[in-house]
Amino acid sequence: MSKQTVKKFFIAVLIWLPIQYGIVGIIGFYHSEPWPAFVFPGFKNVYVYEGGFEIAQTRFEVFTVDSEEPMILQPRELFPEIPLSQVPGFMRTHFSDSAGIESFTPQTVRWLERQAALMAGGELVSMDVVSLMEFYSIADLGAVRDSVKELQRTTISFASR
Amino acid sequence: MKHSEKRFDHWIFKSFTVTADGLGLLRIFTSLFILFFLIPGQGSSHFVFLSEMPDDFFAPPPGPMMLLHGFPAYAVFQILHTVLLFSLAGMLAGYYTKLASVIAGISILLLQGLIFSIGKVNHEILIAVVPIVMAFSNWGAAFSVDSTRKGFSHEVHSWPLSLLALLIGFMMFTAGFPKILGGWLDPATQAAQGHMFNQFFVRERDALLAAWFVNFDNIVFWELLDWATVLFEVGFMVAVLSGKWFKWFLCLAVLFHFSTMMMLNIAFLPNFLVYAVFLNWTEIYDSNLRLYRRITGKKGEKSKKRSVWVLSGVLLILFSFLSYVSSKELYLTGSDLMLHEVVVVSVAFLIVFILASLTLSQVISRFDIIKPGSSQESPK
Fold first, then answer.
1. DSSP per-residue codes, B88-101
2. pLDDT in tens, A74-131
3. How far apart are CA A136 and CA A104, in angstroms?
4. B162: chain A residues, CB-CB within 8 Å
5. How many other CB atoms are there within 10 angstroms of residue A132's CB atom?
6. How many Cβ atoms from other residues are within 10 Å of residue B223's Cβ?
7. pLDDT over 90 at B370, yes or no
8. Cα dist. B14→B166, B167, B238, B252 in Å?
9. Which of A61, A74, A99, B266 is 20 to 30 Å from B277 at the Cα level?
10. Alpha-carbon torsion A95, A98, A104, A110, what sign?
């Protein structure tokens, strides 16, 4: 490449970078973060409340024929092949609202049943997707979980198929 | 030529110095580093998992992946993976280096695109960008099959390094700017501490020093960390203007990632691939050659290539050993932090620490602060 071409390329990049950042911001606000893009994660959220902090969690409760008590699975246990860095995003995208979960196709429900069976074993009846808000307070010995609030519970039935 | 145009030219073409030998060594290091540590995905079982995922879970990020309507068959992952391995091998050997580097970068992008289509994007684009951009430096000019061809140009270019510096600086800025808007600089809140809790309790990132920091409740420390993080990330954009400043910021970046790894268990290994580009590879090549000649006693022209082959062999053995031990998950079980990430980031930290100490001692001796014999003279 000639020097002139390289210079023109640099000028184009210098113009493009802020434009793409703007586009990432706009699309990210209305949809989700575009890819590929030249951005790093902002981690702009500030997790703080009076005297402590709150954290949103999602867990799965698997009910089997053999037991009345559900087996509680964390997302990383139900989806062990998903890298931990992607698990919260995956959960947010697919398991954050009841309507989305209830609209899963039979193929998806069967796949989830297979995943749950790998961990729970036995004959599965259903699986609840439970969204929780955990509240932690700062004590002398560190952070202490002082309460948990259930925000949403959606049941995926395996038996009715 | 106007003064501003001259400065612009200087910034693009003269900010960094490269040689064919240095770039050749960098190419070998980069190829091996990607091969052993940065291939997208976590092996074939990860690709099988993705290919069997139902379409309900196919949530591509806005962009080219939206052209697909579901995860492709396992064979597609295998093909992409194979193309990537062959192109990296080409890059390593310097066989059609430019083409191999670009294909490697594109393969990485495609694999990343599919992996990120589960609804979460990771910010690892630099793994693909490094081979694509460096392809234009002519990093196949030495220690390569290409360099043995008749009529092959041995001219090398440094502007790809300036481009990478610009991209890093801008991307760091995009990490820092939202923090200002999000309230990181508000003295009433300690954002870094909040993230620490979030990573520790929600993502169960509790390895290394995480447990200690989670219990370290010092507002001044956490607030200073908030400010230091924002200033460092935003300041990177300014540092791009000078090659020297930029290298100082890279040193800070290594310290930043090391502390992030110790506290939050986030290693961000892809960044180290691009930081390594800015090491003085010519000096590394020269030092290695001197060492080789001292050990073997051979001083001929052939010793230049042989010294590089030996170093490449050592890297190959080290990387394969580290990769093997890391894959066994004997250490850091239950953590998404891998042993090789801890080792690489810690080694980078050590290198920066040693370089900073040497620079500091040079500065001190230059200003003649240490006067030999002064302690004996002082009683008089």
1. HHHHHHTSSHHHHH
2. 998 999 999 888 998 999 999 999 999 999 999 999 999 999 999 887 789 999 999 9
3. 33
4. 10
5. 15
6. 20
7. no
8. 14, 17, 17, 23
9. B266
10. positive
Q: Report how far residue B56's alpha carbon sits from residue A117's, in angstroms, rounded to the nearest whole number.
A: 20
Sequence-ordered list of residues with C-beta below 8 angstroms from that of B218, at least 6 positions apart, any chain: none
Q: Residue B161: exposed, middle, or buried by beta-carbon count in 10 A (0-12, 13-18, 19+)?
A: buried
Q: Do A55 and B198 touch (CB under 8 A)?
A: yes
CA distance B253 to B258: 8
Query: Do residue A37 and residue B125 have CB atoms under 8 angstroms apart?
Result: yes
Distance of alpha carbon A132 from alpha carbon A135, whole angstroms: 10
A58 vs B43 pLDDT, higher one: A58
Tokens standing for B36? 């052993």
Interface membership of A30 toward B (CB under 8 Å): no
Work out the pLDDT band at B47, boundaries 50, 70, 90.
very high
Instruction: Please name which of A7, A11, A132, A121 lies closest in space to residue A75, comparing C-alpha atoms.
Output: A132
Q: Is any Cβ of chain B less than 8 angstroms from the Cβ of A138?
A: yes
Cβ contact B222:A77 at 8 Å: no
Task: Please answer whether residues B28 and B178 qualify as being in contact, where contact means their C-beta atoms are separated by less than 8 angstroms.
Answer: no
A33 in B contact zone (CB under 8 Å): yes
What is the value of ipTM here, to two decimals? 0.91
pLDDT for B12: 97
Token digits for B302? Answer: 């052939």
Could B119 and A43 be called an inter-chain contact, meaning their C-beta atoms sit closer than 8 Å?
no
Q: How confident is the model over A7-51, as pLDDT tens digits?
A: 999 999 999 999 999 999 999 999 999 999 999 999 888 766 556
CB contact under 8 A, A31 and B113: no
- The alpha-carbon gap from B352 to the nearest alpha carbon of chain A, in Å, equals 23
Q: Kindly give, in sequence order, each residue whose CB lies less than 8 Å from that of residue A133, ignoring residues fewer than 6 positions away.
A: A54, A55, A56, A57, A148, A149, A151
To test the contact with chain A by mutation, choose from B9, B50, B186, B197 the residue with the greatest count of A C-beta atoms within 10 A, namely B197
Distance from CA of B240 to the nearest CA of A (A): 12
- Report yes or no: A42 at the B interface, CB cutoff 8 Å: yes
**Position B297, amino acid:** G
User: Which residue, B276, B202, B189, is CA-closest to B230?
Assistant: B189
Predicted confidence band of residue B364 (pLDDT cuts 50, 70, 90)? confident
- Within 8 A of B167 by CB-CB distance, chain A residues are 17, 38
